[in-house]
Every structure is written in structure tokens, then in C-alpha cells.
Automatic annotation (TrEMBL), chains A, B:
Domain spans labelled HTH lacI-type: 1-55
Lineage of origin: Bacteria, Pseudomonadati, Pseudomonadota, Alphaproteobacteria, Hyphomicrobiales
Organism name: Mesorhizobium montanum
InterPro entries given in the database record: HTH_LacI, LacI/GalR-like_sensor, Lambda_DNA-bd_dom_sf, Peripla_BP_I
Gene3D superfamilies attached to this UniProt entry: 3.40.50.2300, lambda repressor-like DNA-binding domains
Protein name: Substrate-binding domain-containing protein
Keywords for the protein's UniProt record, in alphabetical order: DNA-binding, Transcription, Transcription regulation
Pfam families: LacI, Peripla_BP_3
Amino acid sequence: MNLKQLSHMLSLSQTTVSRALNGYPEVSEETRRRVMDAAKRHGYRPNPSARRLATGKSGMIGYVLPTGAAVDIDPHFVEFLSGLGDYARSHELDLVLSPADADDEETTYRRIVANRQVDAVYLSAPRPADRRLALVNTLGIPFIVHGRSEGLDFDYPYLDIDNEGAFHEAARLLTQLGHKRLALINGNDRETFAIHRERGMRRALAASGLTLGERQVCSVTMTEENGYRAARRLIEGDEAPTAILCSSLIMALGVVRAVRDLGLTIPGDLSLVAHDDVFPWLRPENFPVPLSTTRSSIRLAGARVAERLAARISGLEEGARGEVWPVDLVIRGSVAGAPV
Amino acid sequence: MNLKQLSHMLSLSQTTVSRALNGYPEVSEETRRRVMDAAKRHGYRPNPSARRLATGKSGMIGYVLPTGAAVDIDPHFVEFLSGLGDYARSHELDLVLSPADADDEETTYRRIVANRQVDAVYLSAPRPADRRLALVNTLGIPFIVHGRSEGLDFDYPYLDIDNEGAFHEAARLLTQLGHKRLALINGNDRETFAIHRERGMRRALAASGLTLGERQVCSVTMTEENGYRAARRLIEGDEAPTAILCSSLIMALGVVRAVRDLGLTIPGDLSLVAHDDVFPWLRPENFPVPLSTTRSSIRLAGARVAERLAARISGLEEGARGEVWPVDLVIRGSVAGAPV
DNA sequence: CGAGTGCTCCAAAGCGCTTTGGCTGATTTG
DNA sequence: CAAATCAGCCAAAGCGCTTTGGAGCACTCG
């Protein structure tokens, strides 16, 4: 069933039918109703390729997926996707994942924009002075960044959580509990979120006249194993920390294992706070000792990004609005006063 | 730069240019070279919407993503995606995720097929007599199933791992070690993979004259928490098992925690084997006691599915070929003889 | 009463590509 | 040597939709 057939059986022109369906004003309400009715009854659905060809719009949002033998997609991605999908579903938006060589995402961005495959894109895991943002910005396609960059000479729309504030609060709590030697097990410190977390932590320490030594900061890919290694290195080094901030629950698993292996206890010997993106399959309250966290649902962020993307596509949102969500600090059993 | 412009500057017809570019034979080699050259030099790229409209092909593969407030996307998905992306990237294939209400995926399948949005689709997590397969099969779009269904009156192409064999082997090992009371912590038993695993396990037990009681089998969503609960229920019940098979590493985390909470040890009091899909961020060898596993890389499966999908699209693969991959049984410290 | 004003609706021109059905001029073939 | 064949190219017809530029037809108003 296509437009031609439909309009023919209604004895109307394709123009009128098209307009009726797309809510244009120059068609009478009665006609519109008739058309809508017939369309529904015959299950008419406009062919998206044709529409795209005519309008240039696709009803899809894009994401360039860095891939490669050595590249692992972040497990956070799937939760973000859940949220995105939640919103997208109710608006008949599809998501196009364009796999790209992790070393050369630019070509892919150019391609999907040139091809008009998608109406908008979102970017994630931005770095300071991220070239992708500059590219996408000049390419002129609507976009939203999940996270923030830094040191760019233009503004852009983003959604981020207050990573700095979160780790500031967490560190402040620990210093208030008397901890003097803190350490940070962070994610990849080329990404802005990690930089912000470190910054927040340093600021809190500075307020108590403390500092964070170079050796008290680890920056690694967020795996259980890396959490374990980092924790061992920290604890077995001189100046062993009495409290650790950790950038992910998965790494926290490794920290907990390391602490156990070393015969220490949480929170007796070590206080631990980790960031929780709220996974359904791994929850901080179920850690051997319930884990204190800075919490922010990455899933909700996904839904919000989709919502804003949709708004930008339809012209409802414009400009470079940045949105920063506060992060909850949730205290559980894994923190205590500094050991004496 | 579009076809018209390009053909004009070459003083050729659009027909000829199009044919030259698409490798049709009715164009001389010299002309072809000239055209190819000019196309590359001017960075000509055919507009995919136009091409799609004309050919009906899109260069994209589709996946219907079940979503909903209560629906969590399986974290395995992201690893599968890594593999899929790896292959897709090198073949300029994009992946379209169409979010669907988890209770009504059919509408979405119909939509994406009717719309010709994608050239092929893949389905995952099939159930016995899965209606989606029947639907997709009659819809006539190329597809591949990751996993298998059962009880369907037609054949279909799939890629699966030997779940039954894997759990058969694992269970056999345990019985050989003298275990008499085994238990299974399985995934959702409405999905075929879970059924196969249980079947394999029962078969192995039967061979030793043992059986698996109803109460020795748990079927739950694969989260850490559910693993913990299931383990506690099993161990604290009467007829506590001396060995547990577990369908995922994430649940195994919970099992380990439960065992600890109860003051027991692995493998002294309980032997544990889990299925490992090979996540980069959680590895069985890094469990407190290195975990024995049945191992199969879900990432490789993703790549293979993409490869076969591409083959089907271009007509290189036909028919209902099923492919079943063997699963490695990897013995580590978490199994031992049955306690006396 | 004639011009102006809305309101509906339509024919036709794209959007950029592929593909069908020729049309040429050169080469073979009986 | 006329007829058949063939390689190489082209014009034009779609694919199914949106959108431009009117057209027709009441009505209103000075």
C-alpha cells in the first residue's frame, strides 16, 4: 500500500493525502479524518526511503561505535542503551550504530553525515579538546554529547553528571572521618569524566590541607582485574591509603578481592567508595560489605539524551545548552573512621 | 556531488557512470577506469537513500531491541556487539537497533521489514517455538538466529554453541569427582539455551544414576543478587548440593558471596562451575578461587553472525544451515572431589 | 457588483539512484 | 557481401514521497 494507491482509493490527490497525514493545515478536518481512517484501516505506512529522499530526514539517530580487536565496548553502554531505547521506542526513533575503526572515527562521522543516514548523533566518552566534537559541530548535524569536553573554543549541547562534585563530596566525607591518606582508582584519565573526578577529589583534600600524590592515583580501564591490581599496588606500596575512591563498581569488585587477599578488612582497614552507574546486575548494597557509592543512573541519562535529541531534530531545542545532573552520595557500610 | 553532476563532467550518461561504478559488464574497461578515477577524485558517494529507494537494499542489518521500564538489556549484548561491529566495520555495514515494547516485538519486525529499512536481521535469545522466528521466516527477510529454538516446523539458519554438551561435560566431570548432590543455577528457563543446559546436566547425572530434583534447579535473571539468593536457598535447604553449575559469571559472583557468608569454602565444601561468555571486564581466573568454566566467546559469535548475515545478503549463503560451536571446559581451582 | 480573501485541493516537479529497452557503429559469419 | 552479432553507450521510466505554485470555489466587503 503506497501513497498513490491510497490516494486513488480515496479519490484524492497524493498531495492532499500526504498533507492530511503529516498534519498540514491546508486540508479540511473532515478530509483529514477520512484519510487518517483509511490509512489506519489499510495499514498504510509511508516508505521511509522515499520520505528520506524527499525530505532528507530519516527518523534515526546515530552513534559511531569504536571497534577493533583491542577495543572493548564499555559495559556501561548497554545500560545507557536501555534508557535510550526506552524513549526512542515510544517515538519510533531507531538507532543506527556505525562501527568505526577506533583510531579513525572521523571518517565515519563524515560518512553518516554526508549520507544523511541519521538526523542527529550523540557522542560519548568525550576527552578534553575532543576533535570529534569540533568535527560534528562544523558538520552541522544536530548532536548531543553524553559527558563533557574541555578547552574547546565553542559551546555545545551536552548532558553530564557532576563528576567533580560527586568525588568532591565523597572525598570530603572521608577526610571528615579523619582519613589522611586517600587514593583514587580512576578510569582512563584521557577522558574528561576521570579528570573531573580527580579534580573534585583533589579539591576536597586541599580543603583539609591534604594532597593526592602521583602514586596515589591509578588510571586504568575499568575491569575487575585492573581494580585488583591497582588496589594491591596502592596498599602494598609505602603510604598505604586508608580510604580509596574508585570510579566503577566493576573495579570495586577487584578492590574488595585485593583487600581480602591481603588479609585486611573493609571498612576497618580501608574505607571504600565507588561510583555506581546503577546496573541491574551488580548492586552496591550486595557487596560483601555494602558499598558506599556516588550514584547516578546512566540509564536515565540515556533516556534524557534521546529526548533531547528528538527535541533538537524537531527544532524544539536549540543552542548549546549544557545540563549537569547532581550525583547522590549514598553511605553504606564500606566507610568508617580512619584506623588509629 | 551527485550522479548527475559527475556524469555531466565526464560527458557520459548517468546510466553508464552508474554501471561503471557498480561493476556491470556492459561498460568498457577504459571508461570504467575514467569513471572510477573521477569518482574518487571528487569524493563522490552515492546517496544511500536514493539507492535504497531504487534498489530496496540498505546496507544495514537490523536488530529488534526489547525495551521497557522493567526490561534490562543483557550485558552479554555489548560483547556480542563488539564482535558484530568488528566485522561490520570492515564491510561498511551499519546496525540498526529498533527498540520495541518487549511485549510486542512483532509489530516492530513487521515495520522494519515493510519499510525495507534493513537487508537482514538477527534475532537472539530465542525460546522454544519462538513466534518471532516464524514471523521473520514468513516475512521473507534474510535472518540468522543467535541461539536456537525448538519445536518449529521449519528449519532456519542459526549460530549456537553446544550448551547441552557443555553442561553435560561439566556435570560429568563433577560426578566423576564423586559428587552426588548437584544443583543448577540457570538463566531464564523459557529460553532455549537454559533448557539445553539443564538437559545436558540431567543427561550426565542420569548416566551415573543420579537425578536432579526440581528444587535443585533455579531459573532466574542473571544478576549477582539472584545468584546469591539461589545459592543460599540451595545450600541452606535440605539436601545441600556439593557442586553447583551456574549459567553465568555474574551469578557466580553471587554464589561465591553466598558461600562465604555461610562460612563455607570453595572447593572444599562446594565445587562450582560457571559458563563464561568471555568478558574482558570479569574473568574467571580472577575469582577468589579461580573459577572452572565452560567457555565460549560471545564476541566471536557476534563476528560470525555478522559475517553470515553479509553472506546471506549478497546471496552467498542460502538455506537453513545451523552452526553449533563446541564449548571449552576449562578446569580451574573451583572444583574438587566431593567432601566426605 | 467586482475585487479581494480564505479555504481546499490538485498537477507536476523534484529528491538521486538503478534499470529497462533501445540505438549505434564495428566486427563476424554463411 | 548482406545479414547477424555484439560491445558500448544512452534516454527515459520508475522507486514513493514531499512541496511548490496554482486553480477553483464560496464568501465578504466597500
